[in-house]
Amino acid sequence: MKKSLIIYSSVDGHTEKISKKISENLAHSFVVELISLDKVKTKNLNNFDQIIVGASIRYGNYRKELFKFIDENIDILSQKENAFFSVNVVARKKEKNNRDTNPYILKFLNNTKWNPKIIDVFAGVVDYPSYKYFDKFMIRLIMFITKGPTNTKNKYDFTDWERVQKFSNLLSDK
Description:
This protein is α/β, with parallel strands linked by helices. The chain has helices at 14-26, 64-79, 103-110, 133-145, 161-172, and strands at 2-9, 30-36, 50-56, 81-87, 118-122, 125-127, 155-157.
């Protein structure tokens, strides 16, 4: 059976949750391993037929380690079946929820030489109750400016789980 590696970069755990869902969806077609970006150095990427990378946005940026990992592994990533997905709250807006219109996907593609074969974007979560004071204040300000929810007593999950399933289906066809 083919082997798939899902690497995730998650700040608050939602990208990890999406990655786990993708892993479950692929389990009928692949032997799947799931690993955090900060632990991926323990894996030999040559042992996998497919590599999927998922990354979240915080304050408009991906983690620097994401680009370092890609730069260090660009050759092997490009040789394998591969995919990239972004998790960001901007994708909650219909006009910004695909690879051609999401500013963070466009920013990612402009900042890397990697050209993933499959790309998607999923809206994330605003979990006010779990944030520390500064994050709660800043994310609320961003939500106010972008006309998003600002009630800090609530958690808002914008993820389209059916879309995650469709992404998984594309991956399982590889």
